[in-house]
Amino acid sequence: MDRLFNLCPECSLPLIVEYDLNADPGLRNELRDRRADTSRYHELLPFDDPSELEGLGEGCTPLLAAHSLGHLGDVRFKDESKNPTRSFKARGMAVAVSMAKKLGAKSLGAPTAGNAGCALAAYGARARLPVFVAMPKDTPRSIVDEAKGFGAEVELVDGFITDCARVVQARLAASGGFELSTLREPYRVEGKKLMGYELLEDLGRLPDVILYPTGGGTGLIGMWKAFDEMERLGWIDSRRPRLWSVQAEGCAPIVRAMDQGLETAPAWEHPVTGAWGLRVPRAIGDRLMLRALRESGGGAIAVPETAIEPAADRIRRDEGIDAGPETGAALVALERLAQMRLARNDETIVVFNTGGNKYSR
Ligand SMILES: Cc1ncc(COP(=O)(O)O)c(C=O)c1O
């Protein structure tokens, strides 16, 4: 693509990048000798040349065996807190900001539940592009300060991330900046899909089950896309991990839509959760996410708010992993799935630690 795009100009739905892929077993071997960052997979990204990546060393995060959860199976944490700005959001912003710069953007903006704003601020600084982010006004101070610390202009909005989106769009319409909201441009998903590629590199095969704390859903959508690409590359067969979307009971639009058999997920009316990354009442990628969850044979599960922080605390204390509340939610979900025998102890189960414990007030 040679120009900046947000949603499809004809149907107003997210644009998804398609590659001309053929079986290429050689590439899989070549990867091993490359740099441990996003540029490692450059043929599978929208760059003409790996030097177009304005990177900060994101990606190639460790897959850590969970010592305290052996009774639940071969449980591993994919530790995304090791990324720049301590969350998986760095992956998406690395590719999206680099492409925006390449295609001529002069300034950037996005609404955020927190972590995406910090990542955008850092990558904007790296690409020398000014950044504007809008966050709900109750976003923890530590997150606001982190984004400001990377030079972003931050506006605090009286509302949820969906209200922040309106503020960002009005601001960018006036200033001519480019919007990098979740799935409203095609490249954040491209960066995040590499989590799927890395699982194959980490394990030599794909896991049986994946648990992913979900807001807008781009992590899941990206990995689902990666699995499809890897099949076309001849790296895997048609089997897929069962994907489980994890949400908090106080904001569970995807769980409700799954339970009701819907193809889209209507907005959640009063979203309440201290797992800030999960406080997304309406996901623009709902259709894509719901399809992936169903086709994978997995599903969506909501967990009680009171169980979230104690579970995150357990991961930190028992595993030494910098787990945020979103990952606490995923652990609670795993324990429930195990009780229901929807995740078995003879299986390999990957829990995404999507971000570190960054939310001090
Ligand atoms: C730590 C963390 N986990 C999970 C999510 C949800 O990610 P997504 O919106 O891609 O589903 C977020 C989003 O802000 C997050 O910050």
Verbal overview:
The chain has helices at 25-31, 89-102, 115-127, 141-149, 161-175, 188-203, 218-232, 253-259, 286-296, 305-319, 325-339, and strands at 63-65, 74-79, 108-111, 131-136, 153-157, 178-179, 209-213, 242-248, 299-303, 348-353. With 361 residues, the protein is an alpha/beta fold. It is globular, with a radius of gyration of 19 Å. The chain is 38% helix and 14% strand. It contains 11 helices and 10 strands. It has a 6-stranded mixed beta sheet with strand order 1-2-10-7-8-9, sandwiched between helices. Strands 5-4-3-6 form a 4-stranded parallel beta sheet, sandwiched between helices. Bound molecules: pyridoxal-5'-phosphate. Pyridoxal-5'-phosphate binds at residues 87, 89, 113-116, 182, 213-219, 277, 280, 324, 326, 354-355.
Question: Which terms would index this structure?
Answer:
binds pyridoxal-5'-phosphate, Rossmann fold, four-stranded parallel β-sheet, six-stranded mixed β-sheet, 361 residues, alpha/beta
Task: Provide the low-confidence segments as ranges.
Answer: none
Sheet with the most strands: spatial strand order: 1-2-10-7-8-9
| Major β-sheet annotation | 6 strands, mixed
The value of Rg in angstroms is 19 Å
- What CATH architecture of the largest domain do you see? 3-Layer(aba) Sandwich
* Domain count: 2
The CA-CA distance between the termini, in Å, is: 42 Å
Topology order in helix (H) and strand (E) letters: HEEHEHEHEHEHEHEHHEHHE
CATH class of the largest domain, anyone? Alpha Beta
**Helix content range of the residues, please?**
25-40%
Number of helices: 11
**Structural class from helices and strands?**
alpha/beta
Shape: globular
The average pLDDT is: 96
Question: What is CATH's topology name of the largest domain?
Answer: Rossmann fold
**Small-molecule components bound:** pyridoxal-5'-phosphate
- Beta-strand percentage range: 5-15%
**How many E-type strands?**
10
